[in-house]
Amino acid sequence: MGTNKITKGDQRVIRGWTMYDWANSVYNLVISSAIFPIFYDTQTKKVFAQSKGIEVNQLADTDVILVHFFGIEISSTVLYSFVLSASFLVVSFLSPFLSGIADYTGSKKKFLKFFCYLGSLACMTLYFFDANQLELGMLSIFFGSIGFWNSLVFYNSFLPEIAEPEDHDRISAKGFTMGYVGSMILLIICLGIIMGVGKEYTRLCFVLVGVWWIGFSQFTYRVLPNNVYDKKPDQQYIWKGFHELKLVWKEFRTTYRLKRYLRAFFFFNAGVQTVMLLATIFANKEIDWPKKGDSTGLIVAILLIQILGAVGAFMMSRISERIGNIKTLISAVVIWIGICAFAFVIHTPVEFYVLASFVGLVMGGIQAIGRSTYSKYLPETTDHASYFSFYDATEKIGIVVGTLFFGLMELYTGSIRNSVLSVAFFFIIGLIMLFWVPKEERIIE
Fold first, then answer.
1. What does DSSP say about strands 66-69 and 72-75: parallel, antiparallel, or unpaired?
2. The CATH number fitting domain 11-57+72-434, selected from 1.20.1250.20, 2.102.10.10, 3.40.50.2300, 3.90.1150.10
């Protein structure tokens, strides 16, 4: 479905585009943030306790849960962060090459579909997750992450084609808001299954994520165009796609504001994504919940983050209209630095709820404005996928560095609290670089 024709500002197309946020954000919430990290923690603890000949409730909070992965004994949380890092590394190298082909052939929607289906099916295979065979289980996490993040390259690249620059902040924020609301609905359904039917049905939630993701993405595919610029590729499209990427790279190097912004984005977004990906593992390990092993309090905090994330995305788009994108991002990054410092000292659920409230307010907003700022700064071009591949590669390499740094800090200091505090380093560097982003673009000869 979909046509080759498109009119910027077409509300039907814009609604269809934002529906992909609704469709894919369930992965980010259920798999990355809420249910699977808790499920993973529970399963690995059971295997570890069995290997020690004790009950799970006999494990101390300070115990490092060791698992076996390809014959190597490693902390379960360190392994999780390393697998995510590896998936982001693959995405950061794969997306620029594929985006060049997509731009040359006009096949962005086909790539979007492929990675959507790859990620969705990987989520469904988590139904068979077995902590005694982590090699297979972590493979599902690996491909799920690749599918989710690579699909976003092609999804994001449609934004400058469906709307004028002055509307990018509002539409980007609308997409993130749709994502928060949609994923929250599925999370509530999953909680109903887990708490109402039984924890043994948790695995069904991973299947539901895949079905939701594939199902609602069809609304997007029906309205997005197949080949906006009517590209007619020849048989050597792989080589020509690589050549297309080289041309875009040469053009990108002549920009000044765009490059400065992307450098700042690398650092502050590395901090944001690292916190989002590993916050649940931190909270499950370090917060003194009333009932040991009861994840209810943590789920409540995650729902709070989702609600405030939707509100924050809307608020920040309005703030950016008044003070500009860069000043809005600077304000958000300052709050993130405070969040890292506060996370280092908290222990009680109430303190974590306060922290979660601040995270929610700035999480959706900084992502929405970060995406729309890059879109608004792009030069006149038809190679949007290639340009967004630089954005995506910057984002993923930043996440690789962030999650790897997070894991190494815990590995060498023995405390995940030090890992959380160290993330502030990325925000501080990003903050400094944001002050260097000029108001206007100028071309470097």
1. antiparallel
2. 1.20.1250.20
